[in-house]
Amino acid sequence: MRPYLVLLVALSLQAAVAEWSYQTSWYEKARQDKVARGTVWPQPRSIDTTSVRYYLDPRNFRLEADSSSAAVSDPECKAVVDHALSRYGELLFWIPEEDRAGVDGDETLDKLVLTITRGCTRYPSLESDESYSILVNSDGATLLAQTAWGALRGLETFSQLIYGENGKHVINGTSISDSPRFPHRGIMIDTARHYLPLPFILRHLDAMAYNKMNVLHWHIVDDQAFPFQSTTFPDLSGKGAYTRKHVYTPDDVSQVLEFARLRGIRVIPEFDTPGHMMSWGQGHPEILTRCYPTSFQPDIYYLGPANPARETTYTFMRKLFEEIRELFADEYFHVGGDEVRFQCWNSNEEVQEFMVQQGFPNSTVGFADLQGYYINRILEILHQVPERTRGIVWQEIFDNFEISGDLTGLNLDTIIHVWEWNDTRYQGEPFREEMAKVTAAGYRTILSSCYYLNYISYGRDWPQYYECDPHDFQGTEAQKQLVIGGEACLWAEWVDSTNFIPRMWPRASAVAERLWSPQDVADSEAASPRMEEQRCRMVRRGIPAQPQGPSYCEYEWNILSQLPNYRPVITSSGPRVTEGLFHNLFLGVLVLAVVKCLA
Amino acid sequence: MRPYLVLLVALSLQAAVAEWSYQTSWYEKARQDKVARGTVWPQPRSIDTTSVRYYLDPRNFRLEADSSSAAVSDPECKAVVDHALSRYGELLFWIPEEDRAGVDGDETLDKLVLTITRGCTRYPSLESDESYSILVNSDGATLLAQTAWGALRGLETFSQLIYGENGKHVINGTSISDSPRFPHRGIMIDTARHYLPLPFILRHLDAMAYNKMNVLHWHIVDDQAFPFQSTTFPDLSGKGAYTRKHVYTPDDVSQVLEFARLRGIRVIPEFDTPGHMMSWGQGHPEILTRCYPTSFQPDIYYLGPANPARETTYTFMRKLFEEIRELFADEYFHVGGDEVRFQCWNSNEEVQEFMVQQGFPNSTVGFADLQGYYINRILEILHQVPERTRGIVWQEIFDNFEISGDLTGLNLDTIIHVWEWNDTRYQGEPFREEMAKVTAAGYRTILSSCYYLNYISYGRDWPQYYECDPHDFQGTEAQKQLVIGGEACLWAEWVDSTNFIPRMWPRASAVAERLWSPQDVADSEAASPRMEEQRCRMVRRGIPAQPQGPSYCEYEWNILSQLPNYRPVITSSGPRVTEGLFHNLFLGVLVLAVVKCLA
Question: How confident is the model at residue A462 (pLDDT cuts 50, 70, 90)?
């Protein structure tokens, strides 16, 4: 027996030694060059870092608002700041208790003091000031912002400056002065091709905040489904949603809005019109154009775009928009306008007669005139709803006015959303020509053409988004000023809650940095180590951002281990409360028993 | 006030009416053609369905093993069957209590009786009989199989036959006779490019069982990392894993094996050699070939393939394989053999001298000879480990013996795994030529070339896998018999736990049906409605299988709502127990208090 015993002891010793003598692997060594710990994404406008390290003790560190500033004295500021301080209190430290090392004897940083110098609005807007500055040195750490929205950006940056080293949370001496390059940094989500359960939208909003994105463009309805539950017209979702469970109630919308507001994110709804409205026709066929002949078409296709010839269409839209405007807070409203099939209008006698009345020729120009007429009526309604609203439209609206030869026909407060890539009218990258034309005509614009995240391909694809600049077109400085930003779009034909977040992130992070950081921060190779850090930071915070090449994160995505037990879980439309209910009842009975006993 | 009240009442009424008058939307109507409820995936060899409906009452329905059969009398059968009956007891019914309708007055089905006619082995193998038959009629429901493995396939089928209708669980009269077309229906996972936390591997095994896949090919280590924790050579993972947390302990491996066994799934490990071994060199550089000159190469690349010239290499591999063979149960072991860089061997004097000794010329033929020599030593070791093991190798091994002009040099019990797609030596689809050559030489083969799921593209891409048939090559009937099956491969350069499951499923389901169902079940259009049903079935069961076009599932993937609370969750290497601990302590104190009070 003795040789076996010796062998056993030897093996145990060897295992123990191996555990203690654990060394950095070659891949880890290689990765240390690939990952830039404690770096900020998106890159700030100006950042200086010293080699002096300050250590943070999670038990003692405090995030504080300067009580003499608007952060406390202005109630609108205070509400946002209080919530943010609580959130970031949790996000600053992530090394699990059991892996933490003490910081006695190290130079420590005990608090961050936040000061807001101006004041706050209830909701963020296109005009919000998001600038902030951070100073970390031996005197302590300060964060200075003009508004709560700037304070949010600064808190995010501060949280990203902290990195882990030998079980300690560390921050280097730092001086940052930062503000965004573009005020409109958006992401479009599509809840019509697939329904997204509410918690996924909320978690996505968190990810947006981690990347300083500030506009959720909610393409909420489309041909396939009408999940928005209108109280004015309940049949829209009652007959147009996939099922009665696949809807967003007014309360759901309010939750999204409040969750977004607290993160400095605007929510802009899109109710696409006059095209992409098939699902509206289930509950309200009267507002759509009937296409002829229908005999050769399947039943479901017989309704086309909105019927521009009927006054009742506009009455309907006005009522709906009044409801929507009351629910959503933003000054802007996306009314679509893309991909309208003129053939259907052309086939309908009522529409034809209307065109004759209006003096529109029966030609492409005439249909462009007709769509121009329609959209102007819609924009007019927006202007008239109780709180004046301005429109955002897809580029076809601009193009149609160009075809009509009447670019002055469209209100200049309208924002043109450029999205087409393969425009047959141009060679090369036509969206650059479109940007030039739109801004030359004096319209503000948002770029999405090169930020379509739904198109996927094998391998590392974020550099293509990263390297596409919204100012990269021929135009004057005044024209460039009219570019208010861009939006990453994730159309949802192939995306639902199963793959929404990993497909979005960190690819949308590339767009985030393009829109926030200075124009010359544009080298994707140089950005890679920060991108790696940002990806793992998101994973650590509960965002399953997909990998960008062989690597690992210190804290891997392991959501399955978070579930009560491993058995495959039926996830129906909402959280199951029964278990918690019984549990609480049981607890309540116990507590009562104790109280009664003691009495 | 009155008009408001009237309006309020009217609105409430309207909402109530809308709720009651909820109608099937046009999209739902369209979808009813697109989804085939209660259909089976993969399609059984023979299935007849009647229009007679039987209703199942979840409170009373029983899954029973026929006690006079091997399902109870054979202890190996019983262990697998008991576990399966418990699992499927949960999977059969999914309509939430609150949505269920009673089945009083309907013709009900009260139980399924399972009979096993032959007996069981502890582990499934290449030779396992997976056939089964099912009969559902007015006499009841029976499932007949020769082995526990067949019983598992039958239970899966039975669970898929049940569909929901108006709140009731329904099954139609059915007669099925089924068995797989190929005995080896595998999926390759790669845990070296990215580490997969254990729960994800387990959940993936569940998904495999739902698709009747029966081989997990575990490409466990590679250049980037060595996560397998060897007790014989702890430095392999101690220095070659990403971190000390990114490892699979022997206990982890045992968990995977047992979880797989209970689902009739074989686990075949791959320890790729002599190439793809860079991570081995961190702990054991002595077994790799040093490449010269190194001056121009980064430090991490100076070690190449295994050193075939040293006897110590073989001693090392023998010890490691003995350990692995004891841990893994399968008769087959994948030893890789792909993508070996001959330049490194060519640069090393020791290897050159060895080649001269062995009489291998200094040419491509000579290096092919050398790799042939090496792999034969490895296969010989496999044959000699306590439980004789057979090898599976990537196709290069076969190709090299062909280059050496000595196809008889490779043991005929070796299985050749065909994977190359773009082979410059052939035009068209070279893997078909390779299949022909390999089988003509008398070797058994597995096809993967057209099942590489890591390559992604925009849109609906499963038909390309579905339509690629392993028998589609020029060869005799005897040659076709040598094709034992195929494997879907998901190389993990761009995949980790954040996107592993949605990228795998339901695309791997296409391969599953190709390998299980008769050859003429090959029309992807015809298969689509069943694919839709299978996708949503997986989602319902906790597998986030991604969508295949605009649609919805009755029960959407909503894992976030399953979490204890919504705050982004730090997921470290294991579940956090602290919360539960405190909770239980609190509960314990309460219970003690009650007990003490009552005493």
Answer: very high
Please say whether the beta carbons of A194 and A248 come within 8 A.
no
Given a contact cutoff of 8 angstroms between Cβ atoms, the answer to whether A351 and A307 are in contact is yes
pTM of the entire predicted model: 0.89
pLDDT tens-digit series, residues B240-261: 999 999 999 999 999 999 999 9
Cα separation, B170 vs B57, whole angstroms: 9
Question: Rounded to an integer, what distance in angstroms lies between the CA atom of residue A375 and that of residue A361?
Answer: 18
Q: Which pair of tokens denotes residue A321?
A: 């928009």
Q: How many CB atoms lie within 10 A of CB A36?
A: 19
Cβ-contact B224, B279 below 8 angstroms: yes
**Angle between helices B349-358 and B364-384 in degrees, nearest 10:** 80
Beta bridge partners of A185: A486
Give the pLDDT confidence score for residue B273 in this predicted structure: 97
Measured distance CA(A23)–CA(A20) in Å, rounded: 9
- The residue type of B519 is Q
Phi/psi at A50 (5° precision): -100, 175
| Exposed/middle/buried for residue B62 (C-beta within 10 Å: 0-12, 13-18, 19+) | exposed
Residue B136's nearest CA partner among B83, B98, B186, B173 is B173
B28 close contact with A: CB closer than 8 A: yes
Residue in chain A nearest B281 by alpha carbon: A26
CB-based contact, B90 to chain A, within 8 Å: yes
Angle between helices A148-161 and A75-91 (to 10 degrees): 10
Catalytic (active site) residue A339: yes
Query: Cα–Cα distance between A562 and B574 in angstroms, integer?
Result: 8
End-to-end CA distance of chain A: 66
Interface touch B502/A498, C-beta < 8 Å: yes
**Cα–Cα dist B312/B465, whole Å:** 43
Contact predicate A1/A469, CB 8 Å: no
Rounded to the nearest 10 degrees, the angle between the axes of helix B578-598 and helix A578-598 is 40
Q: Which residues pair with A63 in a beta bridge?
A: A112
Per-residue pLDDT tens digits for A289-313: 998 875 555 555 578 999 999 999 9
What does each C-alpha distance from A353 to A287, A371, A372, B317 come to in angstroms?
Answer: 17, 15, 17, 86
**Which tens digit of pLDDT belongs to each residue from A197-239?**
999 999 999 999 999 999 999 999 999 999 999 999 999 999 9
Q: B519 with B218: CB under 8 angstroms?
A: no
Among B107, B339, B349, B380, the one annotated catalytic: B339
Residues B243, A591: C-beta atoms closer than 8 Å: no
ipTM rounded to 2 decimals: 0.88
Nearest Cα residue to B547 out of A127, A195, A21, A505:
A195
B53 token code pair: 């409906």
Distance, in Å, from the CA atom of A82 to the CA atom of A64, rounded to the nearest integer, reads 9
| Chain B residues in contact with A575 (beta carbon < 8 A) | 561-562
Q: Is the dihedral of CA B495, B498, B501, B507 positive or negative?
A: negative
Please, what is the average pLDDT of chain B? Answer: 89
Retrieve residue A462's tokens: 């974020």
Residues of B in contact with A574 (CB under 8 A): 558, 561
